Amino acid sequence: MSTESPKVAIIGGGVAGLTVACVAVSRGARVTLFEQKAHGGGRTFSFLDPVTGVELDNGQHVILGCYLRTRSFLELISVYTRLTEKPLDIEWRERDQELSSLRVANGSKISLALALLRQRHLGFLDRMYLLLGLSRAGRVKPFPDECVKDWLDRPGQPRTVKKYFWNPVCLAVMNESMENAVGTKFATVLKKVFFGSGNSSSFLWSSAGLSTLIVNPAMNYLSKAGATIRLGSKVESWKFDSSSATVSIGGESDTFDFVVSTVPPWNLDTLLRSDLGIPYKVSSILSGYVWFAKDQNVSAPLTGCIGTTVQWITWKGPRLGAVTVSAANELDDLGKKELEKLVRQELTDLLRIDPGEIERVLLLRERRATVSISGLNKIPTVPGLIIAGDWTIPELPCTIESACESAYRAVDRIYANPVRA
Ligand SMILES: Cc1cc2nc3c(=O)[nH]c(=O)nc-3n(C[C@H](O)[C@H](O)[C@H](O)COP(=O)(O)OP(=O)(O)OC[C@H]3O[C@@H](n4cnc5c(N)ncnc54)[C@H](O)[C@@H]3O)c2cc1C
C-alpha cells in the first residue's frame, strides 16, 4: 500500500466519524465513510415533525463557546457563522418559588462573579461558598476515582448550593448525578467553561436543526471533496496485517491503510470479536417538545427547573419549549403516557399555567445517550486501527466536543505515519 496519500476507512457516520472524514479529506486523504443507518449524525441528528413540519433535534444539544474543536470543524464545513452567540442566561424556577436568574453579561470572570453573587435565592454565605467552590475548580484537582459529590464535599459545599447550582450543572454537563459523575472530567469542563477565554461560557444557538446545521453540510463537503459515503453499510468485520486493513460488508471487502472506528463501545465489542472487558455504563436522556396555546412569559432562553423531574426547558419560541431530563435511567421503564402526564403536570406548576394551555407533548427517549468508561488503556492496540468517538477522550464527558476532539486526534495519528507500507 505505498501511495502518497493515506487511504482511510471510517466506521460510523456520527459527529466523530463525519469530523474524521472531513478533516482527513481536507488534509488529502482518500476517505470512505461507512454508516450502518440510512442517515448520518449518529446521536446528533434532526427530523421533520410529521404534525407541524418543524425540524426537531433528537434531543436538545447545547454547543458552548469553549467547544474549540467543534468550532474548528464547523468552520471547516463553512457553517460556523450560522450559529448565534448568546451569553449564559438562565431563569431558575421551582414549583412554588420565584428564583433569581443567572445572567453572565460577558465572558469575563468579573461578570461571572457578579452573576453568582446575584443568586439571591441563596443566602449570602451560600453565595460565598459557591464562588469559592467555583474558583477551586481551577486549582484543586479531584482524585483520580473521586466522584463529583466527594470532590465538592472535601472543602464542604452546603446542601442548598448543591441543590440550586451544582446538581443542575452536573446533570447538564455530565448526564450523570453528582454521585456517579467522574470528578476529574467535571473539573476540566468547569475550567473550560468558566475560566476559558472570552466567550467560553456563551451558548452557540442555531435556529436550524442538527442535520441541517451539521450532518448535511458535512456530507456535502465530503461529496464535493471526492470522498465515498456509504450509508446503510454496516461493517461486519475487519482484518489487519502489517501494512493494510481489510473491511468487509456482506460478501464485499476493500483494503485501506488505516481504519478509524468511531462506533460506541457496544458496537466495537462486536467488531473486535471480543469482550472489551472494560466496564462501561450508559446514561439515558429523556427529551421532549411541548407546544403551548399561548406565548409563555419567560425571561431567558433557558429555564432551569429545580426539584422537578424536568430539569431544563430550552425555548425554541414563545410557544415551543424543548424539555430535557438528563441521567434519566430511572424513567426508562415508565411508559410514554405516564411520562407525558408527569411532564404536563410539572410544566403546568412551573410555568403557573392552565393545563389546557399545553397543546401537545412529543417525547423522545435515547437510552444510550452517553457512556462513561474507565480503563480506556485496556483497549487492545492493533496496528492500523485507530479508535475514536466521544467516549475515548479520558479528560472529557461524552459530548459533541469530545467526539470532535477524538476525530482531530485520530487524523493526527494517521498523519504521524501516513503510509504504513
Ligand atoms: C438526547 C441527547 C442529547 C445530547 N445533548 C448534548 C449536548 O447538549 N451537548 C453535547 O455536546 N452533546 C450532547 N449529546 C451527546 C452527543 O450527541 C454525542 O456525544 C455525540 O453525538 C457522539 O458522537 P459519536 O460520533 O462519537 O458517536 P455516535 O453518534 O454514536 O456515532 C456512531 C455511529 O456509528 C454507527 N455504527 C455503529 N456500528 C457500526 C458498524 N458496524 N458499521 C457502520 N456504522 C456503525 C452508528 O450507527 C452511529 O451513527 C447528547 C446526546 C443525546 C442522545
Q: Strand content of the residues, in percent?
A: 15-25%
What is the domain total for the residues?
3
Over all CA atoms, what is the radius of gyration?
22 Å
* Uncertain ranges: none
Mean pLDDT, all residues: 93
* Helix segment tally: 11
Binned, the helix content reads 25-40%
CATH architecture classification name of the largest domain: 3-Layer(bba) Sandwich
Distinct small molecules: flavin-adenine dinucleotide
Assigned CATH superfamily of the largest domain: FAD/NAD(P)-binding domain
Would you report the number of β strands?
19
What pattern of helices and strands is seen along the backbone? EHEEEHEEEHHHHHEHEEEEEHEEEEHEEH
Looking at the structure, the CATH topology of the largest domain is FAD/NAD(P)-binding domain
Structure description:
This protein is an alpha/beta fold. The chain has three domains: 7-63 and 207-279 and 374-416, FAD/NAD(P)-binding domain, CATH 3.50.50.60; 107-194, no CATH class; 281-372, Polyamine Oxidase, Chain A, domain 2 (Alpha-Beta Complex), CATH 3.90.660. Helices cover 32% and strands 25% of the residues. It has eleven helices and 19 strands. It has helices at residues 15-26, 68-76, 109-117, 124-137, 148-153, 159-174, 183-195, 210-224, 265-272, 336-351, 400-416, and strands at residues 7-11, 30-34, 46-48, 55-57, 84-86, 89-94, 97-103, 203-205, 228-230, 237-240, 245-249, 252-256, 258-261, 280-292, 302-306, 312-317, 320-325, 358-373, 385-387. A seven-stranded mixed sheet has the order 7-6-15-16-17-14-18. Helix 1 runs parallel beside helix 11 (400-416). The radius of gyration is 22 Å and the shape is globular. The mean pLDDT is 93. Flavin-adenine dinucleotide is lined by residues 11-17, 34-37, 42-44, 58-59, 61-62, 234-235, 262-264, 267, 271, 285, 287, 366, 369-370, 389-390, 398-401, 403. The site of flavin-adenine dinucleotide has 37 residues, from helix 1, helix 9, strand 14, strand 18 and helix 11.
